[in-house]
Design a protein that fits this description.
80 residues, alpha+beta, three-stranded antiparallel beta sheet, 1 helix, 3 strands, elongated
């Protein structure tokens, strides 16, 4: 029987284009995608591989997380 996990994924835009993919709950994952859909696909593949590898070695598998990140923009007056 399969168990479902949910992990937060960070996509960091790179100056040369594309996105570096990080999974905070699985620090061994660092991947890359040319665009957001590819970066998310790479994240999913990397997460599956890491969880399978950890399970084969009998290592702990984190329960995942359901953290949702949002951006908030603010304006702050600049002193003259």
């Amino acid at each position: 029987m399969d168990k479902n996990y949910t992990f937060s994924v960070t996509l960091r835009p790179e100056p040369e284009g594309g996105y570096t993919v990080l999974v905070p709950a699985l620090p061994e994952i660092v991947s890359y995608g040319e665009d957001v859909p590819e970066a998310l696909a790479m994240a999913k593949e990397a997460i599956e591989l890491v969880l399978e590898s950890r399970a084969e070695r009998g290592e702990d598998i984190p329960e995942g997380d359901a953290v949702v990140h949002h951006k908030v923009s603010v304006s702050v007056p600049v002193a003259a």
